[in-house]
């Protein structure tokens, strides 16, 4: 979740900044002079982006942040770890590119190419295994390499967010969605000025980094799983590990996501699925910056749900299997075991559900009912289910929120899209477990949100009246909710699904047009969340979770 919280947006806010005139990178709070220096240099980046001077933005970003793979606060430790040696040269004289250069970022740009590592080209994760769920390979938007202004702007903004804003904020409860909305807007075709506007709107509610209680090392990194107060320490740890992997961020992900007795890959739905969503954007944008953040989210939100995948005793043959998720959702809706568990919707209901022995057992029974006989076809259907749970279930049981969409249900759609992206990279043996992990998330959230009726006619009967994807994209980039991260992400997920599977019956288009046109904020919150929104926001429930602004020209 995202939320307006204390602390400021700051591409130039006081935080962690690299001073090119001093080879020390301090983890400690900067002095007022250093903070002012950082603000001035970072402001130069924004000014360059607004003016369209991409080269100037490159130079300013290099001076302001460095942004390399190594931790922004670990210069001294990095030198010791590398034995104060010079980086190894590649055979062709290349090595670190401008953005990778940490050890030599103080050098003039004209000399940086001398001190660079070459990042090896490795096969995709999918190539490491065979079979699994077959999906069309998604388009990768390599923003690190593309020279056009839009891509360079996105690269700078992702790194600015990485440097200046913590990944978890508001009492360590909410998630930084900046990469999600920036990536979605970029893929939708947003120009540099629109990306900058989105960044500034989202950043108003974020917070600067805070020091963790201690550091994390290779020998004890699992000891701090689930401890969100260690988010900065995990960031430093993974950035240091990136150096030891030769800046090969895919190798870094393989080690920390896939290896070990209880790999992190089996707990990506924790934290309302944000580790999974973040990882999807890392692959889709080919961004090591976002990849490292996804590891931080996966470690900090790690919880007991991993046992459902790690312990085989929870996976049992069902007495009533079905190959259709629509069928199982309908069964859950009518099951009286869940009646009276909650008095209203909200994410806290998941804990209540899992603490009730009978209800938890029943939920797991439904989880096991999905019989994946034809996994590729059934995954395709699962994406239709994800859309239906957002659009076709909207407003059916709560007339007072007829134009409010369920905030927690939308995460079922955005995580589904992330799964679709990751299936093209992961070794095949992880495909079915990942899809089943997503289905477990659906079961938990659907029950927690009090099992709304799913009326598919709410999508099928939409009259397009000439409206097409151009209409949807225009609403996403120029409409009133253009800076609402979840709104923009949801529309793009539907667009991507239509491209993946085809849309002969215009199912995805109708759903997207419906949401684009009638959306008026988010609902589905629990009693503890609503008062906070009224107190912190402008009286609108959605304001707390992401920025929103007036339509262009208003």
From TrEMBL:
Keyword field contains tRNA processing: no
UniProt cross-references to InterPro entries, sorted A to Z: Questin_oxidase-like (IPR025337)
Any one GO molecular function term: oxidoreductase activity
Region annotated Disordered, chain positions: 21-72
Record's keyword terms, sorted: Oxidoreductase
Regions of compositional bias (Polar residues) in chain numbering: 21-37
Protein name: Oxidoreductase AflY
Species of provenance: Teratosphaeria destructans
Origin organism lineage: Eukaryota, Fungi, Dikarya, Ascomycota, Pezizomycotina
